[in-house]
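2 proteins. here.
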Amino acid sequence: MSAARIGVRLAPRLKASKSVLTITPIAANRIRELTKKTPEGSIQKFLKIGIQGKGCSGSAYTMNWVDKPEKFDEVVKQDDITVLVDSKALLTLIGTEMDYFDGKLASKFIFNNPNVKAACGCGESFMV
C-alpha cells in the first residue's frame, strides 16, 4: 500500500467587486445636516436603509434612525458619515447610488439602483 499525497490549497481572499451603496456628495451633506452634533450624553443615531414590501410594484425603500447596528447589518462608511444597510436588503441594493434632490416642490433621497427591473409611475415602489 502506498501513501497518498494530499495537497491543500487555500482559497484566495474574495474581494467585493461592487460596493453595496455609494453616497453622492450632495446626499452626504444632507445626512451630515440631519445628524448634526447632538447634546452631550445623547446616543449617536445611525441612518439605516432597508427594503419593505409595499406599493404597486412590490418593494419600497425605508430609512430609519437606529441607535446601533444589528448583527448582520452592512456598515457603509464614506468620508465622515456612516450609513447602515439592513441585512435583508443587501442583495437588492448592491451597486446602488444614494443621491439627494432638493427642488421647489419636494426634497428627497433618490436611490439609483441598477437591479431594478420595473418601477411604478410615481417612482415610490419598484420590482427587482
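next one coming up
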Amino acid sequence: MKLLPLLLSLCLATPALAGEDEQSEFVADNLIATFYHEMGHALIDQLELPVLGREEDAADILSVLLIDEVWEPETATGIAENTALSYVFMAEANADAEPAFWDVHGLDLQRYYSHVCLFYGADPDTRAGFAEDFELPPERAEGCAEEYQLALDSWWTYLEPLQEQAPGTAILAGDSEDDFAAEVISDEIDALNERFDLPYEITVDIVSCDAVNAFYIPDESRIVMCTEYTDYLWQQAEAADL
C-alpha cells in the first residue's frame, strides 16, 4: 500500500505528534474520534434521527464534525491526521484479506478518504496542505466543501437546539478499567457537556469486552469503549514505531 510509508514520514514530522510521547498522542486522538463516533449512534437513537444511508457513515461524519467543532484548528488537525493514519494501518493489516463487503462499516480506505475529505472541506482555504499530504485526489477534493456543508447542515439541524441549551450534564463517566482512556474520555465528556444539553443521560464505560471494539447499547443508553480497542491502538502505534 503506497500510502503507508508516505504518511508515516509525514505524520512523524507534524506538530501534532511533536509532543513528549507520540504514541500517547496517537492513541488519545483515536480514542477521541471513536468516542465521537459512538456519540453519533447515541444521538441517532435518543433524538430518533432519520438516517438516509448507513448509520455507521452518519456516525463517522459526526466524528469529523465534532473534531472540527470542539478543538482549536491546530489540535483538530492533529486528531484528524492520527485518525486517518489509523485507517491506513488497518487497511495495511487487512491488505491480503478478502474485503468485507457485507460489513456495516465502509472499507478502511473508503472511510479514510471520506474522513480526509470532510475535514479538508471544513476549511479548504487553510487545509489544502492537509489534503495534499494525505493524497486526497483532486477529483474528490473539488467536492469536499460541498460535502462538508451538506453534512454540517444535516447534523446541526438537530444539534443546534442542544447547543443553544448548553451547558448540560447528560454525558456521564461510568466504570473504567483503563486509567489512560478514562482520562482522555473524561475530558471529552466535560467538553461535550459544555457545548450541548442532551435530552437523556448517556453513560460511558471503559471495560474489557473480549473484542477490539467500541459500541453503543440503545436499551441501556450506554457507550462501551473496550479496553481491547485501546490495546489495539497502542499496538498500532508501536508497530509503526511512532
